[in-house]
Amino acid sequence: MHEEQNGQRRRFSAAEKVAILREHFLEKVPVSQVCEKHGLNPTVFYRWQKELFEKGATVFEGREDRPSRQLEQRVEALQAKLVRKDEVIVELMEDHVRLKKVGSSLFRVGSPWGTSPPNPPAFSALGPAGRRASDEVASGLLRNMLYKL
Fold first, then answer.
1. Residue 107: is its pLDDT beyond 70?
2. Which residues lie closer than 8 Å to 114 by C-beta, 6 or more apart?
3. Sign of the CA dihedral 115, 118, 121, 123?
4. H/E element holding 37?
5. Buried-most residue among 8, 40, 53, 64 (CB within 10 A)?
6. pLDDT at residue 65 tops 70
7. Domain parsing of the chain, residue ranges
8. Does the pLDDT of residue 140 top 50, yes or no?
9. How far apart are CA 97 and CA 62, in angstroms?
């Protein structure tokens, strides 16, 4: 950039810089004439040219990166979904622990079922799967009892 008569440096906007470089590249005006016309030092012109070629690839990145941007957005959405899922699991586990604590106090002596929860024979005969089913039935009964409280 050159100094004007009032002693201040002239500042060119990005659009002005591109227009000046375009004169040389598209209209085939020699660098010396372009610089003289706009009051530029040739080193400034060549610095702008270098910056244009170094950073010019960013213009085309928008087209190539669309799939990767979509993938990034999808990853972010899935991560947010996992966070929500983890929060729900935490809430369910807290409820489960709370129900187990309440349930264990319900099955003490003096409870309607005596010292253990009901274990229908049909479930017991199925082994571990039956015990899980029995636990689910007991959890359902506990939930119903708690909602009635």
1. no
2. 107
3. negative
4. helix 31-38
5. 40
6. no
7. 87-148
8. yes
9. 51
